[in-house]
Specification:
10 helices, five-stranded parallel β-sheet, alpha/beta, three-stranded antiparallel β-sheet
Length: 324
């Protein structure tokens, strides 16, 4: 017998509350948090009687998912499951963000969740993701009356209006993405550079990073470590590691501590893990079968250990002579 729980937003979180009610069909609590089953997924599974599943190693059909637990720092993963109307619980305190931000609504998404934010729900509370259907009377199409055909001028005007509307909406989406994603990242980079220059941390970083980021062998080592399957899904969310290290390396190149010719290979070295946290989500988004997910996730993760260093070597070869 399954029980129902209510998931509230945590400190600094957003959205919710979500009411999770597993049943005979939707009986899986899927954890997509960098490999393994996280504490929040286990907690919900224990309280509801559902089964907690590692979404990285096991493909789960969407119709069997009661809710998904993620640790996304604000990229596409935040919106993939809300787009499919699957209740999404983010353990990080991230609000609506990413390219799928318009699908992230309070009735299907909650963030910043800790174990203390999960409790048994009261009787009669509607489960998250439940569709509310309303019936409306059929209305005649605009510009038509009694089945009369529209004139050419009217159809042309409506067509032009639709085109302009699409361009206008595209402009709104672009500005919204710029404000919510690009500008905060620029502010983050400026803050990191300010800390480095203001605290004298740059000298310490130069001595630590230069031996690695200043040589091809060092960058191959960085790339290999970042691509290790156990590590890559963990450091992938939000690309925080790549952002921080990228800023540090760029600052050292600007100071002359690292040769500019290593800028391109360094980029590939620190990005070997990018997307590794998104592999099962991407396969699910592509409507892959569970068997494909089971084989595809480890295949992609292990392949990064090969393609990551290869990409560094190729970037190094293409960067020869660029900055002379």
């Amino acid at each position: 017998m399954y029980k129902t729980v209510k998931v509230q937003k945590g400190k600094g979180g957003w959205g919710g509350p979500l009411v999770i009610r597993p049943d005979g069909t939707k009986s899986k609590i899927v954890s997509i948090t960098g490999g393994g089953i996280d504490a929040i997924s286990r907690r919900i599974a224990e309280m509801t009687g559902a089964e907690a599943v590692d979404g990285f190693t096991n493909g789960v059909p969407e119709e069997q998912i009661a809710c998904v637990v993620i640790d996304c720092g604000g990229t596409a993963r935040c919106g993939v499951y809300p787009r499919k109307r699957i209740p999404t619980i983010n353990v990080l305190p991230i609000g609506p963000s990413g390219p799928l931000v318009k699908f992230i609504t309070e009735d299907i998404y909650v963030s910043g969740v800790t174990a203390e934010d999960i409790a048994f729900a009261a009787e009669g509370e509607a489960a998250a993701g439940a569709e509310v259907r309303t019936e409306t009377a059929a209305q005649p199409a605009a510009g038509e009356k009694g089945g009369e055909k529209q004139g050419f001028i009217i159809r042309l005007g409506k067509g032009v209006g639709r085109v302009i509307g699409k361009f206008f909406q595209a402009g709104r989406d672009t500005i919204e993405m710029l404000i919510k994603n690009i500008l905060p990242f620029m502010a983050f980079v400026a803050m990191i550079i300010g800390i480095i220059q203001g605290t004298g941390l740059g000298d310490i970083i130069a001595k630590t990073i230069s031996p690695f980021a200043g040589s091809l062998v060092g960058m191959l080592i960085i790339s290999f470590i970042c691509a290790i399957p156990v590590i890559s899904p963990i450091i992938g969310p939000g690309a925080v590691i790549a952002q921080v290290v990228g800023v540090l390396v760029g600052e050292q190149i600007g100071r002359g501590a690292i040769n500019p010719s290593f800028a391109l290979p360094a980029l590939f070295a620190i990005d070997a893990q990018v997307g590794c946290d998104f592999v099962p989500v991407g396969l699910s988004l592509g409507e892959a079968e569970p068997e494909t997910v089971n084989a595809g996730v480890p295949a992609v993760l292990f392949s990064r250990m090969i393609t990551g260093p290869i990409a560094v070597v190729i970037a190094y070869l293409f960067s020869l002579g660029l900055y002379q």
